[in-house]
Amino acid sequence: MGRETRQQIINAYFRLALKSPEQSEFSLTEIAKEAQISRQAIYQKHYRNVQEIKEDLSSQLLRHMEKVFGEQKHQAHHKFLENFAEHVLPLLYQYRQDLRAFYTTSLSAHWQIKSESFFQKWLRPYLKNKYKNKRLNINKMAFAMSKMLSALIATWLTEDFPLPASCFKQTFLNLLTNFSETAVKESFFRHPKIA
Questions:
Q1: Same domain membership, residue 171 and residue 115
Q2: Domain-embedded: residue 194
Q3: Does 75 fall in a domain?
Q4: What's this model's pTM, rounded to 2 decimal places?
């Protein structure tokens, strides 16, 4: 019952965000009314404030992605993009309605910070391994690639009818691979030579 009620609260928050995408905050009272439960029930049994709801929204999806990456950890340093395309894109597609709310409403900034930080964490070891013989600023490259990952996912999943992950996969791989290879070739992420 508790888990179902939490999901009911989360769904209510999403519905409110989609109804009023420009509204940056919702009160517990508004969320309770939309969820058709009392404000006290939310406060006493589930969430003390709206920020906790936002944290739970993003944490749920990030936990799923963390699990997928954890299962692929032995390959993560070598095949990050391929693993992402093969295992994470289908997961994101499965949650496309929730992510649409994240990307098209006031939740966008909160989600973007959380997801990009998550992507950077997994990109750094991959980039470090892939470009170990190059003098690159791996943090800068991971930062740029996390922004691109986020933008690609947002563009894909905010379409009215997004392509299934299996169809989007090759486009995703081509764009990110070309970006990283071009950036390295053009020395965009090189550490400056010290005289």
A1: yes
A2: no
A3: yes
A4: 0.81
| Sign of the CA dihedral with 107 first, then 83, 90, and 62 last | negative
Judge if 19 and 90 occupy the same domain: no
pLDDT at 186: 72
Q: What's the number of CA atoms in the CB half-sphere (13 Å) around residue 51?
A: 0
Q: What DSSP string describes 62-120?
A: HHHHHHHHHHTHHHHTT-HHHHIIIIIHHHHHHTHHHHHHHHHSTTHHHHHHHHHHHHH
In a domain, 146, yes or no: yes
Of 88, 63, 62, the residue nearest 75 (C-alpha): 88
- What is the distance between the terminal CA atoms of the chain, rounded to a whole angstrom? 66
- Domain hosting residue 1, numbered range: 1-48
Quick: pLDDT tens for 77-95: 568 888 889 999 999 999 8
CATH code of the domain containing 15: 1.10.10
Number of H helices, E strands in the chain: 11, 0
Q: Which of 19, 17, 67, 12 is nearest to 42 (CA)?
A: 12
3-state secondary structure of 58: helix
Kindly state whether residues 170 and 91 are assigned to the same domain. Answer: yes
Which one-letter amino acid corresponds to residue 181? E
**Residue 169 to residue 166: CA distance in whole angstroms:** 5
- Residue carrying the six token digits 């992605």: 65
